[in-house]
Design goal:
By secondary structure, the chain is mainly alpha-helical. It contains ten helices and no strands. It has a single domain (49-243), classed as MetI-like fold. Helices cover 83% and strands 0% of the residues.
């Protein structure tokens, strides 16, 4: 019931913002080339729905591939860093340093290595979303109390069982927090990758609309990117409720 009330309140807030936006544009006689009204943006989305849907699907596919790879490698890296402290001391500083590399520079290298296809965009999406997942996995596993581990060991539990039955479940809230962040970062990475060269994708739509000064199309792309990011966030949150059902994160 609370979820329904939250959804209704959010929908009402969006409606109020759209009405105020529409009214201000009309009252102030703002040119559509500066700030189009929501009705103009929605009309643009509807008229170009086929091309825009295809563009969003392409970018979403690239982002999901990168995010899934980041989840797999990030969780495994976090576990490895916890089990073998030497690996953490050797590689974690390099992971931290890699995040200081501008995405523009990294993206250019990925395009040169992997070309203009889906692979390069997925790698950039992976690059942006991998680090928080690895770090949060490590931090989540370390939240387990030594007394709990000792209790399982007293019953003859091996390290693998302790990891699967205690440490990973305890780390799930931290992991899912990072995955929710990573989902947005993966989408951004896929879009940025498309700016370096691509034939399809919402990043291409965004870039061409900007260069051609087609402001309604530019805003349509921005709105769709926001909706896609919110949808990804919602999907991850829904999966978290099903998998980590025994824990509620504030």
């Amino acid at each position: 019931m609370s979820i329904l009330r939250t959804a209704i309140s959010q929908a009402l807030l969006v409606c109020v913002v759209l009405v105020l936006w529409e009214g201000c544009v009309d009252l102030l006689d703002v040119s559509p080339d500066k700030l189009p009204a929501p009705s103009v943006i929605l009309a643009t989305i509807w008229s170009d729905r086929s091309a825009l849907a295809s563009a969003v699907a392409t970018t979403l596919y690239e982002a999901i591939i990168g995010l899934l790879a980041a989840i797999l490698v990030g969780v495994l890296s976090g576990i490895a860093f916890f089990r073998w402290r030497l690996l953490e001391r050797m590689f974690l500083p390099y992971f931290v340093g890699s995040q200081a590399v501008p995405i523009i520079a990294f993206g250019a290298i990925m395009i040169m290595w992997f070309g203009n296809g889906i692979a390069s965009k997925a790698v950039i999406a992976f690059y942006l979303s991998f680090f928080p997942i690895a770090v949060n996995t490590l931090a989540g596993i370390r939240t387990v109390d030594d007394g709990e581990i000792g209790l399982l060991r007293s019953f003859g539990a091996k390290p693998r069982k302790i990891l699967l039955k205690l440490q990973l479940p305890a780390a799930l809230p931290s992991i899912f927090t990072a995955v929710r962040l990573g989902a947005s970062l993966a989408l951004v990475g896929a879009i940025v990758g498309e700016w370096f060269g691509a034939a399809r994708g919402i990043g291409v739509v965004l870039l061409t609309a900007m260069f051609d000064y087609r402001i309604p199309q530019l805003w349509a792309a921005i709105v769709l990117i926001g909706l896609t990011g919110a949808a990804l966030f919602g999907v991850v949150a829904s999966i978290q409720k099903k998998i980590a059902w025994w824990q509620t994160e504030a």
